[in-house]
Known about the structure:
It contains two helices and no strands.
Amino acid sequence: MFDVGFAEILLLSLVALVVLGPERLPRVARTLGGLARKARTSWLSLKRSIEAEMRAEELKKPLENFRKEFKSTVDEVRSGLDPVAKPAAKPTANPDLAPAPEAAKPGAAQDPGAKDQAGE
């Protein structure tokens, strides 16, 4: 990443030893190592979350395509059934204006058995 070779690391270590001294150098090295570890774990966590979001988006696309296709199929089926269902849904005659049944008309035979008994 930084293209630092062994010679550069050795030179930086010697400069740090001279500047910080032998007492503070281990503490500073431990602190820098901890910071590097935190930075690396944070970076990996961020990378994993971005990859997870990308996978989730990739999974949503086929699901969305399936939903659109299913909806269009349902709409086609409904539009195909509409011409069949519409004539049956509309009544041909108004039930309020329908003629009265024959039994309710005056002068109609009320009971066929009653005529037989009267004729005997």
